[in-house]
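Objective 1.3, modelling of assemblies. Example input:
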Amino acid sequence: MTAPGPGPSGIERLTARLRGPTGWLLLVILVPWLAAVAWAPEDSVQGVVQKILYVHPPLAFAAYLGFLLTALAGGVFRWRGDEAWDRLARSSAEVGVLFCTLVVVTGPIWARGTWGRWWSWDPRLTVTLLLWFVYLAYLLLRGFTEGSERAARFAAVYGIIGIAVIPLNYFAIELAGGRAIHPENLARGSLGAGMGLPFLLGTLASLGAFVHLVVRRVELEGLRNRLAERAGADGGRGEEFGSWDT
Amino acid sequence: MGYVIAAYAVTLGTAAVYLLRLARERRSLVRELGSESAREQPGSPAGASPS
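Predicted structure (tokens):
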């Protein structure tokens, strides 16, 4: 008789519980957000294209959160050695890269509508591209070194070092000292009348989508791990995937 | 208006495709885990798929 595979970890039990509620919460936010965007007043300078504001920065906030969570989970994995934290780091990086990709795509669409060109080597745009490359490299590293504990431990350190790009990205405009063409970071009261609500809902929708996707992604990693552990317990496919290879 | 629609369509479309991919993979893994469990249970026919 084969030994049963291990049960899900605390993180995976939590994600299994959160999958439904976060999905419903996201649906509940999405509809009012899109309605608020439709009814938001047009900007007097940029016109209707300014409505990209309600999706572009919120996507960036979620990408920041993804990379911060990658670093945090990677740090806990290094400290406690629990693979579940590594799976959270990896999942968070993947969803963070997805959101960062959307930032890199929606930004040029907005730029084309306002500046008349798709791209400029502005400090904010350049550092955003750098941030995207840093975590894309993290995913490539994880993809090419599947199942290696040494790579997982290295990736944890890399993920922690990578977050140094986040403050550089956020403060790029101030650091550029007036040479940037990207608008400054939003401050309290800097949005026009009627623009605060769609921006707030956009931020909640983006963060809600991030949490829901990470929850689903972590759950997937947990299922893959359980399957690999069972295969390992059967003595057959254990070396194929799932077992640490130092 | 085209730029606004493009930005929102790309964002929502990409997120939806990613979500569907995760859901499909989850279904397939759950099915696979279920069939592994069925194989482990004494008396259950080998390779029987769970209901």
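Residues 44-51 of chain B have pLDDT under 50 and may be disordered.
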